[in-house]
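User: Run a structure prediction on this.
Assistant: Running it now.
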Amino acid sequence: MTTTYRIEVAIFAIAFGLFGLVALALVWSGGWAYEVLARATGHTETTFLDIGGLGTIGGGAFVVDLHNLLSWHGEWASYVVGLSPLPSAALRNFTTAEVAHMADVRTVFRGAEGAAALALFVGLYRLVRARRRGDALRLVRAGTLIAAGLVAIIGVAAAVAFDPLFLLFHDVFFPQGNFLFDPATSNLIRLYPEWYWQGITAGVGVSFIVVALLVAAAAHIALRRRSNTYTRAA
C-alpha cells in the first residue's frame, strides 16, 4: 500500500464523512425525528414563558402541546437550513438573545452545507481518478470503513461524555458565547432540551455508520465478484 493510496483513502474518508454527516443532519432535522424522540421519551408537551414585546421574559406561562412544538421546530429548522426567513412570531415567543443565537446557528449550518457540497465534489473527483486506475471499489471500501470507524469513536466518546463534548462543539462554533441560556427561563431550551440533542446525535451517528457499512459491504461484494470473474476467465 503506497503513501499516495493512503492519502487518497484519507481524503475520500473525510469527504464521505463530511458530506454524509451533513446530509443525515438535514434528514434528522425533520419533524418526524422530533416527534419520534418526543413520544419515545414521553415529552409531548412543555410550558413556554410569556415573552414581552421587546423580547424580555414576562411573568406568565402557557402549555405548548406536541402539535405546536412540531410547528415551532419546523419553522426554526426551515430557517436554520436556509429555506425560509426568520419566523414572524419569533420575538413574541423567544428572547432577542435566543433569536440571535438561532441566526448564528443558521450561519454555521449554511457553512456546513457549503462544505458538504465541496466534500461531495472532492469525493467524486477522487472516485473518478481511482476508477481510471481500477481502484474505485477499493477506495470506497477503505474510505467508508475508516469514516465509519471515526464516527463510531466519536459516538462512544459522546455516549460517555455528552455534555462536555456538546459544550466544546458550541465553544468552537459559537465562540461569542451566546449559546448559554438558563433552562428555567429559556423557551429555546424548552423547545430543544437535552433529550432532543442526545437523540439527534445518536440518530445521525448510527445512521451514518449503517450507511457507511452498507456501502463498504457493497464495494467488497463487487470486488469479490470481479475477482471471481477474472479467475474464471483465466
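Residues 194-233 form the longest helix (40 residues).
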